[in-house]
């Protein structure tokens, strides 16, 4: 039986000044470094296997939005999903009407709901420890990501909500590591980004290039990754 791997990512936020840029603002080396650090790694490494392999969806991503918070954030979440669909070539994202039809569920909660929702709907364990200020769970196998679930806190300010939405949903698509040496990226808990940055658009376009396959190691991508970075940069404006 093929092994299915489950990953959890949590988020902590600190402050610095945001860095903006266009697709030609970064060197190829910066882009390759960013891809390596976000795609080939996990923020939490207690898995007992080699986690440093490509994780991505290989079928259309079907989102379902559970808006459980007092404030209805559905429109904002739908708009961000639409942005992903427009900006990432090779990934098709849609919103479905039933949780049973989804392979990516987004739970928008108030803080008091965070732990119960994570334990009941994500961990499936009423006694589980619940870390972080928001969270994504990714179930991945040999043929790619099977299911992701993101839990986004709505009632602790606009910055936290938007930051959590962007980072956790993008990480649920595959680039699951954070790195403090990525100033242009939301995949850096020391940054103040709360949007889908140009740098991160390039990373996602590289990941969803059809030449990048689930289960690939960094060694297997080394020879053609600069070409993929060049092509992704051209697609991102």
Report on this model:
The chain has 7 helices and 6 strands. With 237 residues, the protein is α/β, with parallel strands linked by helices. The protein has a single domain, classed as Collagenase (Catalytic Domain) (3-Layer(aba) Sandwich). It has a 6-stranded mixed sheet, sandwiched between helices. A hairpin with a 2-residue loop joins strand 5 (135-141) and strand 6. Helix 1 (28-39) crosses helix 5 and helix 5 (198-207) crosses helix 7. Residues 12-20 and 45-49 have low confidence and may be disordered.
Secondary structure layout:
Elements: E1 5-10, H1 28-39, E2 61-67, H2 74-87, E3 93-95, E4 104-109, H3 111-123, E5 135-141, E6 144-153, H4 158-171, H5 198-207, H6 218-221, H7 225-235
Parallel strand pairs: 2-3, 2-4, 4-6
Antiparallel strand pairs: 1-5, 5-6
Helix pairs in contact: 1-5, 5-7
Q: Strand percentage, roughly?
A: 15-25%
Low-confidence stretches: 12-20, 45-49
Spatially, the strands of the biggest sheet line up as 1-5-6-4-2-3
* CATH class bucket: Alpha Beta
State the end-to-end CA separation.
Answer: 43 Å
Mean pLDDT: 88
Total domain modules: 1
């Amino acid at each position: 039986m093929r092994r299915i791997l489950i990953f959890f990512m949590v988020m902590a936020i600190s402050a610095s000044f945001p860095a903006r840029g266009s697709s030609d603002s970064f060197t190829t080396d910066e882009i390759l470094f960013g891809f390596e650090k976000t795609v080939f790694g996990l923020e939490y490494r207690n898995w007992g296997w080699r986690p440093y392999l490509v994780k991505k969806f290989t079928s259309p991503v079907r989102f379902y939005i559970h808006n459980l918070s007092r404030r209805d954030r559905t429109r904002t979440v739908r708009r961000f999903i639409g942005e992903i669909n427009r900006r990432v070539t090779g990934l098709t994202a849609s919103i479905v009407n039933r949780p049973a039809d989804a392979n990516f569920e987004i739970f928008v909660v108030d803080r008091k709901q965070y732990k119960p929702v994570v334990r009941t709907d994500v961990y499936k364990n009423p006694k589980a420890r619940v870390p972080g200020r928001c969270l994504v769970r990714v179930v991945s196998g040999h043929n790619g990501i099977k299911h992701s679930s993101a839990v986004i806190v709505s009632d602790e300010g606009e910055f936290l909500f938007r930051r959590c939405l962007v980072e956790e949903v993008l990480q649920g698509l595959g680039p699951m590591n954070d790195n403090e040496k990525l100033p242009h990226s939301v995949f850096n808990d020391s940054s103040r980004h709360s949007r889908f940055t140009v740098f991160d658009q390039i990373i996602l376009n590289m990941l969803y290039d059809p030449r990048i396959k689930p289960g690939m190691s960094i060694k297997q991508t080394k020879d053609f990754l600069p070409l993929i970075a060049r092509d992704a940069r051209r697609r991102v404006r």
